[in-house]
Design a protein that fits this description.
By secondary structure, this protein is α+β, with helices and mostly antiparallel strands. The chain is built from 2 helices and 5 strands. The chain has one domain: HIT-like (HIT family, subunit A, 2-Layer Sandwich). It starts with 6 loop residues before the first helix and ends in an 8-residue tail after the last strand.
């Protein structure tokens, strides 16, 4: 059961989605770290990537396909996909999400 105050659960329900399909949505990051910075969220609340086993195999595969579709729809040919797992890695919202970053300046993350 998701927490009542989960920001991303609210955005799944009420946010401005740039792409939505098969139980996943994509939104723009409000503090972008690249010219294109999208977040991919499962509609279902899962706290972190550590809990990815909560998804049946086909749904987990669909999540990866959705990430790729989101990048393609954004017109990204070269991009980075990132998941922060836990506060020590920079996860600040505990609803599983993927960062899709594209555009210039990605080399600064190397």
């Amino acid at each position: 059961m998701p927490p009542d105050d989960c920001l991303f659960c609210t955005l799944v329900r009420e946010g401005d989605h740039v792409h939505a399909s098969n139980g996943f949505v994509a939104i723009r990051d409000i503090a972008p770290k690249a010219p294109t910075h999208l977040l991919v969220l499962p509609e279902r609340h899962v706290d972190t990537f550590r809990e990815v086993e909560a998804f049946p195999d086909e749904e987990a595969a669909q999540m990866l396909r959705f990430v790729a579709e989101t990048a393609a729809r954004a017109g990204l040919e070269d991009y980075r996909v990132l998941v922060n797992v836990g506060p020590g890695a920079g996860q600040t919202v505990f609803h599983l999400h993927w960062h899709v970053l594209g555009g210039t300046g990605l080399e600064r993350f190397e």
